[in-house]
Design a protein that fits this description.
Radius of gyration: 48 Å
Mean pLDDT: 75
Number of strands: 9
Structural class: alpha+beta
Strand order of the largest sheet: 4-3-7-6-5-8-9
Number of helices: 6
Order of helices and strands: HHEEEEEHEHEHEEH
Shape: rod-shaped
Distance between the termini: 142 Å
């Protein structure tokens, strides 16, 4: 600065600069603090950009998360489709027959060309019906309470009230004795069968009374009915007494034990 107060020119041709130098350095504290605040703000911005960079359009985290969510949804859908259980026993039923001549096809043989493909359907097995378990009820055998399923294997001859079936019962007992099938005479709805069993020549413990009404409620027989039961408690057949003799004997043979062949 010149003596007269005008700004002078330096030796390098730079424009004039108005610089004020304070007498006390403490007057610059506010500027110093503002400078440090700006440095801290810039540092926070760099850290934030470093953290959020994977979530930007150039990162790989978001596509990876989207792929994991898609796989989770797909797995849940497949589990819902292929894992279903209703707690019922299912057995394959025979396919519906179509009109035309019947042809026997072995299980391993291929179907002829042009033949419709048959797939087994499934049905629920009801208690007391063929393929299902014997009803879980109490009866009296020779006057003693016993579980019905403890009588297996057996031919249960059900006698409803008012059944005039002495001759048919005698024929049924004779067929069972001929092939070694144990037969029990079961009285339903209070029918006493002890004398009837004695007249048939059967021991007293073959007289059974349905005290729990388990058999009466399941079958409601209108006349003499034979229930064939295997040793595991599974019902093989439920046949009225008027069934053909060959059909009854075939059903009873399914519960008898075939004797072993003699050794030579």
């Amino acid at each position: 600065m010149n003596v007269d107060g005008d700004h002078g020119q330096d030796d390098y041709g730079l424009p004039p600069v108005d610089i004020e130098i304070p007498d006390d350095a403490r007057e610059l504290d506010a500027d110093v603090q503002a400078y440090h605040r700006e440095l801290r703000a810039q540092r926070r911005m760099r850290i934030a950009r470093h953290i959020w960079a994977p979530f930007t359009r150039d990162g790989l985290v978001m596509p990876l998360l989207a792929g994991c969510m898609a796989l989770t949804l797909l797995a849940g859908t497949l589990l819902t489709i292929f894992t279903g259980s209703d707690g019922m026993a299912l057995v394959p039923s025979q396919p519906h027959a179509t009109a035309g001549p019947a042809h026997h096809v072995s299980p391993g043989a291929a179907q002829p060309a042009g033949a419709p493909q048959t797939h087994p359907t499934f049905r629920a097995v009801a208690t007391g019906q063929p393929g299902g378990p014997l009803p879980d009820t109490l009866v009296t055998v020779g006057g003693k309470p016993t579980e019905l399923r403890a009588l297996s294997p057996a031919v249960l001859a059900l006698i409803p009230p008012g059944c005039l079936c002495g001759s048919r019962l005698r024929a049924l007992a004779g067929r069972a004795s001929a092939i070694g099938a144990p037969v029990y005479v079961v009285g339903l709805d209070g029918v006493r069968v002890a004398r009837l069993t004695k007249r048939l020549g059967l021991p007293g413990w073959r007289a059974v009374e349905d005290i729990g009404r388990g058999l009466a409620d399941y079958y409601h027989p209108a006349g003499l009915t034979a229930v064939i039961v295997r040793g595991d408690g599974t019902v093989t057949a439920v046949l009225p007494a008027v069934t053909a003799r060959g059909a009854i004997e075939k059903a009873m043979r399914s519960i008898t034990v075939t004797p072993a062949a003699p050794r030579r």
